[in-house]
Amino acid sequence: IESDGANWVQVGSSDRALAHRTITGTTTLTAHDDAVFANATSAAFTITLPTAVGIAGHVFAIKKIDSRMKE
Question: How far is the C-alpha of 45 from the C-alpha of 1, rounded, in Å?
Fold first, then answer.
């Protein structure tokens, strides 16, 4: 998958739809997440990756979508 700046676009072939969501606070991703839009307008937060057990090779795309400065 790749971002066009506002949306995630699937590149290549896949047998399932990409799961995506927007988060606004501390979150632990799951094996069901593919693309995550991180909106830290209110405050900085942490995104934790899940254990790799059982999901080897899974790729997570995380894109910061707010204008807040890096902290």
Answer: 24
User: pLDDT tens for residues 38-70?
Assistant: 999 999 999 999 999 998 888 899 999 988 776
Amino acid at 53: V
Residue type, 42: S
End-to-end CA distance of the chain: 27
**CB of 9 closer than 8 Å to CB of 2:** yes
Strand 35-38 versus strand 61-64 pairing type = parallel
Nearest to residue 35, comparing CAs of 10, 56, 12, 55? 10
